Amino acid sequence: DVKVTQSSRYLVKRTGEKVFLECVQDMDHENMFWYRQDPGLGLRLIYFSYDVKMKEKGDIPEGYSVSREKKERFSLILESASTNQTSMYLCASSLEGTQYFGPGTRLTVL
Amino acid sequence: DQQVKQNSPSLSVQEGRISILNCDYTNSMFDYFLWYKKYPAEGPTFLISISSIKDKNEDGRFTVFLNKSAKHLSLHIVPSQPGDSAVYFCAASVGGSARQLTFGSGTQLTVLP
Questions:
Q1: Which of A40, A43, A94 sits opposite B103 (nearest CB)?
Q2: Cα gap B19→B14, rounded to integer Å
Q3: What is the C-alpha to C-alpha distance for residues A92 and A79, in angstroms, rounded to an integer?
Q4: Closest CA to B52 of B26, B29, B35, B23
Q5: A60, HSE (Cβ side, Cα atoms, 13 Å)
């Protein structure tokens, strides 16, 4: 059974803090993705990775970075959190074809 | 500029009737389309997909129709059930795979008992 897990379901951080969001998949998928979901805007791609140590910018990479040191793990980093980064963050993985999503992390930046 | 558009933010349907969710796209390079369903506080789950070489794909109560000339796809749910109440996202990609998806803004479907 497909499994994508995210380290936290809910997170509250202060402006300026460094934030790490972790995503792990157990399907040996090569491709991993980070999205944010905001009302009326759908899912917007932040970064993605096709292989270990490889990363590509998505549509809205500003203010974010990523790390993929192992195939199963893809981390999203907010170097200095800001209030406009309050959102639902979704991780996904795929081999080819369908993307499978984790449960999401609701991040609030105060 | 939104390349994938879902112009109806919400839709209400009576249980047992048909639900039709619509999606338009502008990028003629898109050749693979998917529908996802999302419940609150959960990640999206894959529902059904269609390649541009087809105009219809069916899976149980769910059917996706693709009209390439109109750059339009639709998801039909028949019969609708209260458990179908969720946000539905359409998504599209180039190159025949879901390597990089472009999502619409979603449609909230409410199925009334």
A1: A43
A2: 9
A3: 21
A4: B29
A5: 15
Is residue A30 within 8 A of residue A109, CB to CB? The reply is no
Q: Which pLDDT belongs to residue B96?
A: 54
Q: Give the per-residue pLDDT at B97.
A: 53
Q: Does B23 touch chain A (CB under 8 A)?
A: no
What are the angstrom distances between the C-alpha of B90 and each of A104, B9, B18, B81?
18, 12, 18, 20
* Residues A47 and A56 sit within 8 Å (Cβ to Cβ): yes
- On chain B, the residues whose CB falls within 8 A of the CB of A35 are 103
Assigned token pair, B76: 């039909």
Mean pLDDT throughout B49-61?
A: 95
Show the 3-state SS of A23-84. Answer: EEECCCCCEEEEEEEECCCEEEEEEEECCCCCCEECCCCCCEEEEEEECCEEEEEECCCCHH
